[in-house]
Amino acid sequence: MLMFERLREDARAILDRDPAAHGFWQVLLCYPSVRALAWHRVAHKLNPKHPVLARWLSQRVRHKTGIEIHPGATIGRRCFIDHGMGVIIGETAEIGDDVTMYQDVTLGGTGKDTGKRHPTIGNNVTIGSGAKVLGPFKVGDNSKIGAGSIVLREVPSDCTVVGNPGRIVRKADKRVGVDLDQVNLPDPVQERMTLLLKRIDLLEERLRQRAKEIGCDLFDLYDDPSALIPNDSGDYYEI
Fold first, then answer.
1. What is the residue-wise DSSP string for 46-93?
2. Collapsing DSSP states into helix, strand and coil, what is residue 212?
3. 127 φ, ψ to 5°?
4. What is the pLDDT of residues 5-47, one digit of tens each?
5. What is the pLDDT of residues 73-122, one digit of tens each?
6. How distant, in Å, are the alpha carbons of 82, 160, 202 from that of 46?
7. CA-CA distance, 74 to 235, in Å (whole number)?
8. Cβ atoms within 10 A of the Cβ of 103, count?
9. What is the dihedral of CA 141, 144, 149, 153, to 10 degrees?
10. What is the pLDDT of residues 151-210, one digit of tens each?
11. What percent of the chain is predicted at pLDDT more than 70?
């Protein structure tokens, strides 16, 4: 009975988060996340006493769904692996409740360490497509990892991480419910470039003012883009 209860719970979570889902039976029959998680719960129970059988079952599910979950991994309730192809969840990974992952996500380890070597994902975390979370650290509750990010160190709760290596670009951004927005994320590189361009404009303006004070009008040439033309080597010279 508990098994069917969890299946219904997983299906409801998908219907809540995926606008492409149209009804319980479509989710149950067509979504690889539901099947992969259902069979993982069986493999997880088998793993302590029958590790070979559990691993064989997980590999069969991998071939059927494209989602590879080691039988030793611990996964909470209402987890949703959208699309799922290429998702890898390592042996000592721990995943909380209401987590959403997209295709090609890896929760992996580093090196040949034994014991705990995979990440712990908190509750209500969203992990964008292609993201890699590598190492035995925690990603805090309500955090979001942008698509393509590579996270190598701990992430506090209520944070947004983007980039390679992953950088925290937003802190204490508390949210209610599951946030599936993978587009409107801060871009730290663009923000720094904008600040640098503003600084260059300010410095040029001050140089221009100083040139006028000392009666030098050479600097005004640079106001006209046609005052500089490229030579054969690709460098620029004045005309």
1. HTTT-HHHHHHHHHHHHHHHSEEE-TT-EE-TT-EESS-TTEEE-TT-
2. helix
3. -120, 115
4. 888 899 999 999 989 989 999 998 999 999 999 999 999 999 9
5. 999 999 999 998 999 999 999 999 999 999 999 999 987 778 899 999 99
6. 26, 36, 66
7. 59
8. 17
9. -20
10. 999 999 999 998 888 888 877 655 545 555 655 666 677 777 888 888 888 888 888 887
11. 82
The angle formed by the CA atoms of residues 26, 90 and 164, to the nearest 5 degrees, is 95
> What are the b/e assignments for 165-194, b being 16+ CB within 10 Å?
ebbbbeeeeeeeebbeebeebeeeeeeeee
Run of H or E residues at 175: none
pLDDT confidence of residue 125: 94
Sign of torsion, CA 41 47 48 50? positive
Tell me, yes or no, if the pTM score tops 0.70. Answer: yes
How distant, in Å, are the alpha carbons of 101, 117, 123, 172 from that of 154? Answer: 18, 13, 15, 15
Q: Decide if 168 contacts 181 (C-beta within 8 A).
A: no
* Max CA pair span of the chain: 89
Q: For 87-204, list the strands marked E by DSSP.
A: 87-89, 94-95, 100-101, 106-108, 120-121, 126-127, 132-134, 138-139, 144-145, 150-151, 160-162, 167-170
Please name the residue ranges forming H helices in the chain.
2-17, 24-30, 32-46, 51-65, 188-213
Is 139 in a helix, a strand, or coil?
A: strand
**CB burial of residue 239 (10 Å; 0-12, 13-18, 19+):** exposed
